[in-house]
Design brief:
The chain has one domain. The chain is 75% helix and 2% strand. A two-stranded antiparallel ribbon has the order 1-2. Helix 2 packs antiparallel against helix 3, helix 2 runs parallel beside helix 6 and helix 3 packs parallel to helix 7.
């Protein structure tokens, strides 16, 4: 409950800052709507020439596209702005002010800052997922819905742990921001199913940078393409990734020398 209260305080603070520049906030929301609409138009054009894409139907593809925007939106809402600020603190030696606070340092660097306009992207993603699910509602069972929620949650954990590990490298390297640019590039590739890509890229999006798994697997659950073993695997991988990222964070902290060193 304590950390939930802290999250509420952080969110309200960032919201007040965003609303101080309302025109900019509205412009960002409008830009998000245009981006999502363009992606939807591209998908509709593709399926105008073919009823399926490597076994994916149009409704299933809509679900996948919606999941992509949910995952990307949540990442840009909390994870990315927080980790960008964290890397700046390491570079300036001001991380000390976070480490002395009576709360988990991992929590404070992960969820301290928010990009409020990204909520619009999450909402649009939910709308696209809903539009896709409505068209295949007759084939979706309660088990599929539960599998979807579990897989999506695991996917978000994988994205978080990946960003935490990349950001922790700032304790040893100066320009870690370049790695986040690579992350964004691979994230764009996740708007399509992993199985349509060549072997090397499919492996990269599934293992080294598991962005494809975070997006494709939840959509597979709704499409009836995810077996119980696959769901169990992604749950186990998410738990292992979380434990490794937490350990790596503690290991990185021991190498930090800030302004007080």
């Amino acid at each position: 409950m304590r950390y939930l209260r802290l999250l509420g305080i952080f969110f309200r603070t960032e919201l007040q800052f965003e609303l101080a520049y309302r025109v900019n906030f509205i412009a960002e929301l409008f830009g998000l709507v245009m981006i999502v609409a363009t992606s939807l138009a591209a998908v509709l054009v593709l399926f105008a020439y073919s009823p399926t894409m490597n076994g994916w139907t149009l409704p299933q593809m809509l679900v996948l596209l919606g999941v992509f925007y949910i995952v990307q939106g949540i990442g840009e809402l909390a994870f990315t702005p927080s980790f960008e600020r964290f890397m700046e603190h390491v570079r300036l030696g001001t991380l000390d002010f976070i480490l002395i606070k009576p709360a988990s340092s991992q929590f404070l660097v992960s969820l301290r800052h928010f990009r409020i306009s990204a909520i619009g992207q999450v909402v649009l993603g939910l709308g696209v997922v809903g539009a896709g699910m409505v068209q295949i509602a007759d084939t979706i069972s309660a088990v599929d819905v539960i599998s979807f929620v579990v897989a999506l949650s695991c996917g978000l954990v994988l994205i978080y742990t990946l960003l935490l590990v990349l950001s922790t490298l700032a304790f040893w390297f100066v320009r870690v921001e370049n790695l986040l640019v690579v992350y964004q590039a691979f994230l764009d590739a996740a708007r399509f199913p992993v199985d349509i890509y060549p072997g090397w890229l499919r492996v990269t999006l599934s293992t080294v940078i598991p962005i494809g798994v975070a997006v494709t697997v939840p959509a597979q659950a709704v499409a009836g393409k995810l077996e119980l073993a696959g769901l169990g695997t992604i749950v186990a991988v998410a738990i292992a990734a979380w434990l490794f990222a937490a350990w790596f964070w503690r290991f990185g902290l021991r190498s930090y020398t800030g302004a007080s060193a």
